[in-house]
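Rather than argue in generalities, we have chosen a single entry, letters for residues, whole numbers for local backbone shapes, without further comment.
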Amino acid sequence: MPMKGRGTAEYREIDRWDGGVGWLAYPDEEMQRASHAVVGDDGGVWLFDPVDSEGLDDLVAEYGEVSGVVVGLDRHERDAAKLARRHDVSVYVADWMTDVADDIDAPVERFGRRLADSGFDAFTVLDKSVPPWQEVGFYQESSGTLVVPEAVGTASYFCAPGERLGVHPMLRPFPPRRVLRRFEPDRVLVGHGAGVTDDAATALHDALANARSNLPGAYRRALERMLS
């Protein structure tokens, strides 16, 4: 199983609800790069950290016209520029994130504490230089949707045995509890793996609270995956 898929592949849906849909462009890749299309309060569709795929435009069109494409992590440019050009919209990057905009071959718009008219509040998850990591999260109160691009995930290498949602392996010693534990979301959408929609708030709080105590199991599982 490759770490990152390439070429042409058929996407697989991983999340679907009245206000959006998620997909894996390369279902068999190890990284499980997840993308989401969410209907904003403006009635348009916002694409979060998207990876392009065959038939994707038809999937997104079920929810309306694209309002914008969002990059939530400094290394999640993915296919943001390609999709923005195709839908004639801008790529949205947080106003405090550095370098990211320079690598995007499409119009870029900056945002602060609100993501345009989407209804999503934006907040800093991490902004550090060692290791380099700039991540912005999003919360849409009207739908109870929390988007966390990288700090938590459901891909196997994020989770210790028994966890439905896990903290990124590099962040387990010092999980971003302060910034994330204030949310009580109905769903958590992540950048790697399927989202959590069943008792999502409990899954999020458990992941943060147990990040350190479950660290040995998480690292052991990740090592086993690397060696298998």
